[in-house]
Amino acid sequence: MTSPEPIDTADPTVRAVPTGPTDPKSDLRFYLQEARDALLWKLEGLSEYDIRRPMTPTGTNLLGLVKHCASIELGYLGDTFERPSGEPLPWLDDGADLNADMWATAEESRADLYRRAWAHADATIDALPLDTIGRVPWWPSDRNEVTLHHAVVRVTADTHRHAGHADIVRELLDGSAGMSVSNTSLPSGDPAWWERYRNRLEEAAKEAGATT
């Protein structure tokens, strides 16, 4: 088992975990950006085919996850607070195919839309107090109010969830794994160790199955 080629953690572009006193917006921005970076990292070094390739029976694929997360940011951290991005998102229109936001056509870029969505979402976070009330357009009108704080937490949780999906998809594609560029959070990089570890788990599972 390998991990995507790591980036030098001494590089000033690699984000360090904040220490000491911080403000709520900084904390929210840090963990949201950490999830964004992890998700895009899973596409590095792969072909256009592999980033679009469906890897589960429900079609989960890397670029589809990125496209979905971009759409989520533009919605919850844009339209919800009356800050439309102007980005055309035809896959969200009435009459669009089901699940059209979860896969990418041959023409759609791997990162451009997502990076523009980041910039738009970050501008919303910077411009508004965290207690600002917004209205989610696709929620029922009698319960569609959220604070900016709630929206950022929601988007962050969703993005980390999909970064986890991407980690598994990448491992299925080429064996690469790891939590983030600066911290893989893996106990070993030795393929032989991982083979022994997996075999041990398989034996434990068989033993448990034999007793039921």
From TrEMBL:
Region (Disordered), start-end ranges: 1-25
Position of the signal peptide: none
Gene3D superfamilies with a match to the protein in the record: dinb family like domain
Cross-referenced Pfam families: MST
The protein, known as: DinB family protein
Organism listed in the record: Streptomyces neyagawaensis
